[in-house]
Write a structure and sequence with these properties.
By secondary structure, the chain is an alpha+beta fold. The protein has three domains: about 80 residues, Arc Repressor Mutant, subunit A (Orthogonal Bundle); about 100 residues, D-Maltodextrin-Binding Protein, domain 2 (3-Layer(aba) Sandwich); about 100 residues, D-Maltodextrin-Binding Protein, domain 2 (3-Layer(aba) Sandwich). It contains nine helices and 15 strands. The strands form five sheets. The chain has a five-stranded mixed sheet with strand order 4-3-5-15-6, with helices on one face. A three-stranded antiparallel sheet has the order 12-7-13.
Amino acid sequence: MNVTVLNLFVEVAQRGSFAAVAKERNIDPSSVSRGIAELEAELGVRLFQRTTRNVTLTEAGDRYLAGVEPLLYELARTHEAALETVGGTRGTLRITASATFGPRCIVPQLKEFCARYPDLRIEALFTDEVVDLFAERVDLAIRLAPAVEGNLVATKLMNTRYRVVASVGYLAAAPPLEVPADIARHRCVMFNLHAFRSRWLFRDSHGAIEEVSVDGDLVLSPAVSLHAAVLEGLGPALLPNWLVDGDIASGALVNVFPTYDVTATTFDTGAWLIYPSRTYLPQKVRVMIDFLKSRLNT
C-alpha cells in the first residue's frame, strides 16, 4: 500500500477536485487521477463519483476516508517522533485559533517563540469555522468554549471573563448605565451568535443572577469588529477580557459594570489547547503548549 497515494486520496476527498490537488502539489493532474485509479483497482471498489463539475466520495470512499485519515495522521506523527530523537525541535507546526483570538493573543507571542525555536516553521489558520484537525493536519487548536467535547485531548490555556464595555464618548452622551437593567435602554453592538443577541446574564457579588434583554442595530462578527465598533462609540458590547482589558487599562474603554460577572451563555468558560492524539504528543506541540501557558495562563 502506497502512503503517497493514500495521502493523495485524502487530499482529493478534502478538496473535491483532482486539479486542485495537482495544483497544490505542482504535479500533472493525470498523476493524481492515475494514483486514485490504482488505489481503486487495488481495493476493487470505486472511491469517488466523478462528474465534469466535481468529485465526491462514494459510500465506500467515505468509509475508507474515515479509517485512513487518522492512520495517516498517526503515521506522520510517528515519523516526526523518530526525527526528534536526532534533530531536536524542528519541522512544521500547524495551529488554528479564532479569527480574533489568533491575531490578538497568539501572534504577539510568535516573535519570542520563533527566536527560541528557529528550526520550527509555523503555519497558522485563524478562522471562526470549526476546523477538522485530522483533515487539515492541524497539530494544535485553541478553542473558546466552556468545555471540550469529543475524543480530542484538551488542556485549559486560560479562563475567559466577559465585560460590558463602552467608550468614554458614548457614555458621556448616552443615557446613564448604572445598573444592569439600564442596558435595555441602549442599542448594543452584538455578536452574530444567537445566544449573544437576546439577553445577557449578570451575577452580583452575592451570586444572584439577573437576566437583561438586549437589542441593537449592529450585529457583527468576528469579535474584533465589535471591538472596533465600541472604540468608535457605536454602543456598549459584551466582549472577552483578553480583548478589552488593555483598552480598559489605557482608558480607551470603560468596564461599565466592574462589580458584576457577565456572560451570554455560562460564567465558566475559557480558551482550550486541543490536540488530536492521546498516544503521542510531538515535541513541537509540547513546547508550544508550555510556551503559551507560560505567557497567557491566568
